[in-house]
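Homework help board

Subject: predicted structure for assignment chain

Our instructor gave us this sequence and asked us to write out the predicted structure in token form, then describe one feature. I got the tokens but I'm not sure how to describe them. Can anyone check?
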Amino acid sequence: MRNYRRYNLFLKSVFALSLLAVCIGFVLQPVPALARTLKTLVVPDRAQSHMQPEIFYAFKTSANRSTVEKDLTMKFSIFNPYLTTEPSGRQKSILKDLEAGRDLVVETKKNLNKGASLFEVLMATIKANPDSPLAKARDEIASMMKDYSLLIIESTGVTVLHPIFYNPEVNTLEVGYATSEDVSDTLYGLFFLDAALNQGKPIFGTCHGAQLGYLYAGGGITRLFPGKTDWEVRPLYARTNPFGGPIEVWNISHLLNARNLEDSTEYSMLKYPLPNMFKKGAEFSQAFINKDFNHTLGMTEPIPVTEDFTVLSFHPLSLKKGLTDNFEIKTEVPGYPQVQNTNREMFNKIFRRGIIVDLFHYKTLFGFQYHPQYTYDELQTSYIFDFLVSKAAEYKE
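My token output:
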């Protein structure tokens, strides 16, 4: 009987130890990581209440197939204080403060020293006056940006970069094609850039967004041709694509582009090398992207001089002073009878040829003058968005 009791006690001890081992093993099992959502803030044209579907598709697709983090998803929020329906009234309040500060922008520009940056002087004034409307708008935008991992500033159709910020001769709110609303829009674009850069958040800026970033970094913005549309003849310029793409026929109406002369809404295929930064490896040494353009302003000299700024590529028509375009076609252009000497001469007469940047990297900002989202599934354009999503995924609070 005594042996039986000892044996029974032994069995109970073994069972208890086994159960304890199972429990410990269960506790020590790695807990599966929860799928992460990258909250993204999008600044569109003020006439749009939604983000561009091509940009939505590009980022969502790259996030879904991300190899950096499994089950990565993205959630987008829109900042447009003109069309917002948010119940808190936060965006409307920011716009009200920006509107209240527009007179200070004009006053500051009128007293600006030659060569000084209007935005840098405004930021110094804001710092010295923390209770001013512009200081309140800047602080509220910085607070809002803390909730997001990525900032997107889109291309625009109505909103423009107001020339009071880059043209030394402009010191009024209403000038030519620009309005007082453009001053507010330029300010909140610059404030969002300032917040995201200070917080170390990655930024995708395309066209308007790139120009804002270039201005913020200290670069020069120039209107590439006069704001006139009734030319004596249509300004046209033909050149051979250096990388085997179709002949490029550039034309100027109210915009500069190289699209179909009969239908300017048809996207062109300007085949140029994918910058090394976005390449995944040696197997993509021959990777290409499409440099489709449709704009009036150029990111020109001076190019920002700082270790945080790198030019990744130049505009196809970029040309250093004193040099000639070796790819210009000066004879008849096959398939384009519209390109005559008179058209070519008009183009060369009105186009301000010089250094023109079309893609740069500044701290956490990637600024594209062109629109890579339109050709996500063509060439190797998608690798740009794979790269940007990986940068956003790397950001940790």
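Reply (TA_rk): Your tokens look well-formed. For the description, you could write something like this. The mean pLDDT is 89. That's the kind of observation they're looking for.
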